[in-house]
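Handout, page 2. Input:
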Amino acid sequence: MANLTEFEIGLCGFGSMGRTHAWAVANLPFFFSSLPFRARVAGLCTGHPEKAKELARTFSIPRVYPDPRAMLEDPDLNLVDLCTPNLTHAGLVRAALESGRAVLCEKPLCVTKEETEALRAFLGRPEAARFGIVFHNRFFSGVLRAKELLKEGALGRILQFRVDYLHDSCTDPQKPAGWKQYGSLGAGVLMDLGSHALDLVTHLLGPTQRLFCREQIAFPERRGLDGKTWTTDGDESDSLYLELTSGACGTVTVSKLATGTQDDLSFYISGTKGALRWNLMDPDFLEFFDATCPDAPLGGRRGFTRIACVSRYPAPGGIFPSPKAPGGWLRAHLQSYCRFLEALAGETTPAPGLSDALYNMDLLLAAKKSAEEGRMICPGDASS
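Output:
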């Protein structure tokens, strides 16, 4: 393989997502054939420098930096991967873009309207063509197949939809809060789970005309990060109603108050010619109802077809493990990372990219404003 693009990646943050990204980079050669690039995590910085040194030894990362600024001063890095808490994203994204490096950032892009507008200024600039946002749920095999069927028009005109993302991590009032429950840290369930759920709506069904949101905090007081009694400032559940520009209407529910759930992201989409349904707890299968199939006594052949998407990813994927083997949660992250690097190597704009990240922020900020004011809000409407 000649003229391979070499990616020397600086990884900022090594919590659960940083570890996931490091795994994805290391495993790309196993799952994909004839890639036009080589990639490795060449540098690491975290909020705990001593821990970073230990992690670097464990995962064979050659360089450790005391802070992100030092990482961005290393001329040998050409890609920065940001897996830090939400509140830090805006400043790090801006600094990394201005340094001339490619950037991959975990969702959400940022947390405030002011940060969103500052990063919107990069649209149309060369830096924007080298930015990617992590909406990995687009890359499960079942979701990829759903996108194909929708593009083919297999569902006809879309009528209704429902997207739910349910966890149970806030159901125990005795459990100390984590940073993802702090609204003051740019967190709360809307920013955490809602960013993914709203991206799926946009990715599969198109833009939103207007929306309405109600927030819920079931346990106003619990132990905070310091172990002391804390007055909750982050939403624990959100219920949204969306009207799309296509005319379809639907709901999005994101909650960490859903007792008994795990990582339950699901969607149901109904159209004039059919319907789709999918669940992250069974991610390798997509269910499709073909309403054009004639009804008959005892139902004939009419009903939901369970499509075995499994690991049948298109080239250059699908080589490992077997196409019949289950993919799982990590597989979508791997697919997402590969597509990002492929775009950079081919000098095309990554998707999802900066415009997707900004539109997602428009939806999140509209939902926050709707919850505060108790009325329907149009995304991006800053004046109303």
